[in-house]
Amino acid sequence: MVDVLLITLLITLFYMSIANRMLTYVKVLSLQGILLFAIVFLQLEEINTLNLIFILLETVIFKAIVVPLFINHILKRNKITREAEPFLPHFVSLIIVTVIVFITILLSNSIIETHLDKMFFVVALSTIFTGLYIIASRRKIITHVMGYLVIENGVFVLSLAVGNEMPMLVNLGIMLDIFASVLILGVFLNKIGDVFKDIDVDQLSHLKDY
Amino acid sequence: MIEIYLIGAFLIGVGLFFNRNTVLTNIMLVLFLALQWTFTIHAYLNLNSTELTYFTFDSLGVLLLLTLSVVSVPAIIHSHIYLEGHHSPPRTQAIFLAAMVVLISAIGAAYLSNHIAVTWIFTEITTLCASALIYHHRNKLALEGTWKYVFVCAISITFIFIGILFLSLSVQHAGSTDLSFANLLKLSKKLDPFWLQLSFLFIFTGFTAKLGIVPMYTAGIDAKDKAPGPAAALLSTVLMNLGFVGVFRFYCVVANSPLHHWANLVIGIAAFLSIFVATVYMIKVKNIKRMFAYSGLEHMGLVMLGIAAGGIGYYAAILHVVLHAFVKSSLFFQFNQLYRIYQTKSIYHIGDYFKYNTTGAIVLLLGFISSAAMPPSGLFVSEFLIFRSLFEANQIIVLIAVLLLLTMIIWAFGKNIFKILFIPPIDFDESYLPKISPWESSTQFILLAAAVYLGLNPPVEFVQLINDSIMILPK
After folding, report:
1. Using a CB-CB distance cutoff of 8 angstroms, which residues of chain B are in contact with residue A166?
2. Count of H helices and E strands in chain A?
3. Which of A177, A195, A203 would you mutate first to test chain B, the one with the most B CBs within 10 A?
4. A141 has a chain B CB within 8 A of its CB
5. CA–CA distance, B9 with B23 (Å, rounded to integer)
6. A204 and chain B: CB distance < 8 Å anywhere?
């Protein structure tokens, strides 16, 4: 069952690589939050109940509801256009994400490791690299933030892989999630919307050496 | 004691944030400095004892904590002068001071932590405080600098976390789940090399954002450019040292494993590229603050080169880190006086500084001599030792390349500094010149003198602290 959920998570990445509208990204992020919720529920059996409840709440409330709602709010408030404006056509994006997944599968097959579930490793690495790719290939700052959130989801999956032996690491991962998301989203996006009218990375090139 | 320090610093930070009374603010700042110094002395007296499980007063931590305490006094004095001169709104002032106090204490705690996850948590906190400092001016450029800094730091913190996850896999092979540095060191021979390799790559890359070398150096340069002078002084000295501590403590573990040579190679490449990048930018740069920041990139590159070369290089690297903190912070403190006269950062519009502010000009000249590592600067000693370690490690080609690059850096740096000092500026309106008290430069003279003293005639205790910190490394 966990494998099915993980593969669904992988499929969302493909969908994200060809998504055209900003709202689709938000919905996919929300779906990923729910998937992570289910994976945590099935995967972390040996963890104590209170900790498990905390992790479940974090995934379902924070990842699946609060952050997407907040991004939605920002999109509306700053009147960001609905197109994602990638630098590359969708077809190329799809191929690149496929190549990423393919390479991670090859990579994980070359590793002999008893402490790690291969499935988690493949999904986590693919998610992290896809997130990096989304950051590199989209024009809007808000899509960079979404790419970062995708990376965080990948890191979260990776931390679940070792979560039964070291629950502390999962908690640390959650701390990273909350801390970085709050910092990036909460403090700045409102301000960036006020100062830079149409949010675009091309505008962030005024800091120069001369 | 550390719990008192952390809680006290946090409470003072909260107090500074909500308080709008000037007298009370000054009292709290003095109180914080007293707390900082009491804690430092306590740490030095209780060397190698552990408090709150996660904090050990080891030699490296205490040495850098001392450096932090020395730099934090002028940093707070100059912040005070800076905020008074700029007439910023009370709320902005309060945020600035509170962020600075929390930043200093978070850096201190991160130096002393003996667990990689705790170091990581405090590194996160420093990002938060640093971003508040960079955003002080609340204009478009400050926002751009802050955004880049926050984003790059968030990604590098994620990298460190991925590294910790891989490290945990490596540790499980050795039959343990404890990630404290002492335990890692004990198990270093048994760690799984594949995961250790991956984890070193990620943790090293992550910490370079704080350390300020290739590959994650870019955001740091923008941050030091946009942060006000006193804050930039902290960012380019003690915060870089935090990155150094993170890399160095983990390097100690890797150095005791079979991966020692490979780790040296990784660090060596990053270090050499840093010096190269610094040279390229130093030649072109016309913004004086960014010039200082690129000089920091060069110095940290040299430090890591010393680590990669090994032998006497370890000693030289730690000496260099401490001395660089004194020298570079004094240059950034001086920058604010320069800015008050010329109201610009561009070297094109700055000149004849000796005429307008003689004391400040002497600081700038001495700071340049120190930073370029000419005798009698203490940095001369440490750089000389780093070159010697490269020579002893049979890296003659690297040594020659680095020396050539350094010559270019000194030429570019000197050209700009002497333009500032002696050549009259174009279109400069002399009718309105602010009066700058020579006393404002006194802190910088003390810092520069300390760098000379510690380099040429280091006290026995100081040498002992450095030797103890590198004891665990293989010869």
Report:
1. 168, 177
2. 9, 0
3. A195
4. yes
5. 18
6. yes
DSSP summary character for residue A186: I
Amino acid at B443: T
Nearest to B172 among A115, A179, A180 (CB): A115
* Residue-level pLDDT, tens digit, chain B, 475 residues: 889 999 999 999 999 999 888 899 999 999 999 999 999 999 999 988 998 889 999 999 999 999 999 999 999 999 999 998 888 888 889 999 999 999 999 999 999 999 999 999 999 999 989 998 998 888 888 888 888 898 899 999 999 999 999 998 888 888 888 889 999 999 988 888 889 999 999 999 999 999 999 889 988 999 999 999 999 999 999 999 999 999 999 999 999 999 999 999 999 999 999 999 999 999 989 999 999 999 999 999 999 999 999 889 999 999 999 999 999 999 999 999 999 888 888 888 888 888 888 999 999 999 999 999 988 899 999 999 999 999 999 999 999 999 999 999 999 999 999 999 999 888 787 777 888 888 889 999 999 999 999 999 999 999 999 999 999 888 7
Chain B touched by A182 (CB under 8 Å)? no
DSSP annotation of B436 reads -
Question: Does the CB of A7 have a partner CB in chain B at under 8 Å?
Answer: no
A187-to-A66, B209, B353 alpha-carbon distances in Å: 15, 21, 40
- CA B98 to CA B15: how far, in whole Å? 8
Q: In whole angstroms, give the CA distance from residue A56 to residue A59.
A: 5
Cα–Cα distance measured from residue B311 to residue B177, given in angstroms and rounded to the nearest whole number: 32
Cβ of B150 within 8 Å of Cβ of A184? The answer is yes
* pTM higher than the cut 0.90: yes
Q: Are B227 and B292 in contact (CB under 8 A)?
A: no
- Chain A residues with CB under 8 Å of B205 CB are none
How many residue contacts between A and B have a Cβ separation below 8 Å?
103
CB contacts, 8 Å: B106 with chain A: none
CB atoms within 10 A of CB B77: 17
Q: A207 vs B164: CB contact, 8 Å cut-off?
A: no
Do A194 and B153 form a contact (C-beta atoms < 8 A)? no
The distance in angstroms from the start CA to the end CA of chain B is 35
**Binding-site residues on chain B for chain A (CB distance < 8 A):** 117, 120-121, 124, 127-128, 131, 140-141, 143-148, 150-151, 154-155, 157-158, 161-162, 164-165, 168-169, 172-173, 177, 194, 222, 225-226, 281, 284-287, 290, 346
Q: Is the distance from CB of B347 to CB of B460 less than 8 angstroms?
A: no
Instruction: Identify which of B301, B212, B311, B204 has the alpha carbon closest to the alpha carbon of residue B250.
Output: B204
**Distance (Å, rounded) from C-alpha B318 to C-alpha B458?**
13
Contact residues, chain B, for A148 at CB < 8 Å: 151, 154-155, 158
Q: Give the Cα separation of B382 and B451 in Å (integer).
A: 11
